[in-house]
Write a structure and sequence with these properties.
The complex is a heterodimer of chains A (244) and B (346). Chain A has 244 residues and is of the alpha/beta class. Chain A is 36% helix and 26% strand.
Amino acid sequence: MTLLSVQDVGKVFGTLRALDGASLTVDTRSFHGLIGPNGSGKSTLLKAIAGAHFATSGRISFDGHDITTAPPYERARLGMSLKFQITAILPQLSVYDNILLGLQAGNPVWSLGMSKTRRGLHAEVMQALERFRLAQRADDLAGELSHGQQQWLEIAMALARNPKILLLDEPTAGMSPQERRATGELLAPIREHCSLLIVEHDLDFIKDICDALTVLDQGKVVASGPTAAVQEDPRVKEAYLSHA
Amino acid sequence: MTASATTAAAGSTRPRRVLPVVEILTLAVMLITPFALDSRPELVTLATNILILSILALSFELCWGYSGIMSFGQALFFGVPGYVIALVGRDMEFSHLWGTLPLAMLVGLVLSTVFAAFLLLGRRTPTPIFIALGTLTGSYAAERLVSGWQYVGAGNGLSSIKLLQAGEYEFVEGMAFYFLALGCLLAVYLVSRFLMRSQLGLVLAGVRQNEERLAFFGYRVQFYKAIVFAFSGMIAGLAGALYAYHQGFIGPGNMGPGLSTMAVIYCLFGGAGTLVGPIIGAASIEALSYVLADIDLVKRFWPVILGLVLLLVVTFQPSGLLGLVVSARERIGSYGWKRGRDQGGD
């Protein structure tokens, strides 16, 4: 069943056409990789899906809703979650409070003002921290974590509210090989309840975890489909693998 | 490792807590002050004025220290309610505390809500400069408007304001007004402290650090800012009414950029993001101003001196006076219920 549908999306920055009629679909509980050479428009497409900027043309629908011009908070409320390319944790808050912020996002303002849900969310915060191996750092400032741990924290924050889809922009950038392997292990179980759309340069990593791939080149989709088939597509080898 | 074990382990690394000590000391000084100054009524008047200006400083603190909103027109929400209660006293012969103080708060709330809707809730995300200039312009325009409006006394303002009443009792300058102002300051402080240390305060702390991140969590960031801005306007309205009753006067300068800038200076000088810092800032600046007022040279250059003080603080001690004793970690603090309680500690 299709969860996310991107149809003929274009994005123009001044005179630069960053996306030119890009289309893809992500099914429920599937892991979908978005790859392509530098400057191919991967992050631009991910941001258009997340609402960081709006598509100049085309249509994006998510879980039956047209979200092409919806602001980020509306997309988040529909069950979409994003992890930025550059780590976007809140460095001056504790690791615990970073997760809590993600978890309490759906609470009404009056309830937050009265701290009504804080106690009830404690177990969920600790569960998320333990799942991402951060429980021992709960009271440390998030800015004091290592780079890899900050990436995990941001993924944990993004997953806190059990989104329907998680958009990940280069989650393993700057990680050691061990941390990359651990990231793959941490992401695998979310398939039970969440889809994944992931932009990543590490092809081995993406081939290991993704069911489907979309390859972009110069803002256009070169190929899209099951991982094995896309890997063998001669246009992909030409457009992407020869650059890599 | 269990959750409780984790918390216990992490709890041992928590920083030394200085802020509660500063808060208690400040309260103690406030309680003692009128008795210590009993023989000097003019100083009790000064101290009352400081308490009222502290409420104004707190209203700015909520905007800047906790929500990252640079409101350079906070005096607007102070002055307009002051004028309103003065006019209600003059034209309707009404000055009962139970009616006029809530009225002033309502006027401050409505006015700041209108400004919040215009400055914060537009289609585009406003820049800090847009908000600073928007509030500054509002404050300046209001000052100019009343300066030429005869109905509200034009440049002379409104004087001989009807005394604030509670039943048959009339509040005049002195001990009673001091404790009324102290009661109001305490109430505003406690409510603000509760909110800023709640889960709502956590959202605001997140907003200060990374608005975009919060939006991608599903928070309507500008809406949260608008709520705090409106609340701060309500507080400023209370301060404006108290000021008008206490001084028996309200004038154009009480809603202009001059007083708005003073609110900024109180907050930054004392230490933004601590709540108690702006109170200490207001007390320090006003007390210093009083002491130095008799020196002609200082009097003439006082605005310049204040400007230099602000410049020096922003440049060399951006965390203000309290930054000297309160660590950055303590300033960040924690939000909502204490974790020990979460685990059945209470």
